[in-house]
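Bug #77: duplicate submission created two jobs. Keeping one. Sequence:
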Amino acid sequence: MIQFADEAVIRVVSGKGGNGCASFRREKYIPNGGPNGGDGGRGGDIIFKVKNNLRTLAHLRFHPVFKAQNGGDGMSWNKYGKNGEDKIIPVPPGTVIKDIESGQVIHDFVNDSEDDQFVFLRGGNGGWGNVHFKSSTNQAPRRANPGEPGEERELRVELSIMADIGLVGFPNAGKSSLLDLFTNARPKIAPYPFTTKVPNLGVLHVDEESDLIIADIPGIIEGASEGAGLGVRFLKHISRTAGLLFMIDCSDPDCMNAYSMLLKELEGFGGDLIKKPRIVLCNKIDVEGAAEAAEQVKAKIAAEDPEVKIIEVSVAARTNIDEVRREIISLVQKMDRLRTPGKNHGDGKEKSRFMSSRAVDTSMEVQYPGHQ
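Kept job's structure:
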């Protein structure tokens, strides 16, 4: 399994400027040549850049120090020092960099493309050589400036996966099975809780020119918002989705309370998760007794939250799966219209917010975290 990392602490250092040179001409028949010390080169910058084929921050976690090259020192005969090379740090889409002490967000790469660069730290300027200090009263200056030091910062880098729909549910509710059915992702599926240990992404093809991204996070358990289980660590990965797809296992004896418990954990986590539009799937109606339980769950949720779309399904038997697909597409298109009023999203030619910023080929689509 591909190593998954969604947080990293790194130290970044921009390059020091090169020192200026203090030198004088030494030529035959010119015993008292003037100053000819060149300037030092500029230090390299620290630059962040989005790289679409990255899916995790593992490359930062295991190489936590990034230094740009120092500028070269100036030399005689007015030779300037070489500028230091910039250090470009690639990050996946959806990355946020924060100051580690204050927690302040420095930059959010949610809308950045591969053509954009974020210059975080500038390298130090090179020092002047003594040629700059020549004057009518000081024709042999022995002064040269040192290069300016670079800057150093410690950062916390966090990744929030870019997706259109987030799957939410308790362990073994059928989220991974639905992702496997709808998309090209092949998450591990087994009949025991916490089979999914890291987020999985899949591409749902709507038509020839349109795609959606679905994110499956590890199952939530009661108390997740207070740190229990695996789900709380990954809830941030659905914070930017257009909507949520709740999965309820109606073969579970406690299925009547599942929806309210999930809402409680989302509310406890904070942010706008609880406000996102959602679809509820009452799953496993092919199991004996689950269809009757699904009717009761549906009635209870409809009474508490009449605006929510509720569908009774069986992922294993593929019951009502086409209806689920239509509702997912409709929800994402509706949310995109709300974000960009006046834009025509009904022509079938619009991509998701994430997919519109990246070129996807079939060789890339399977390279998602957690892919088996």
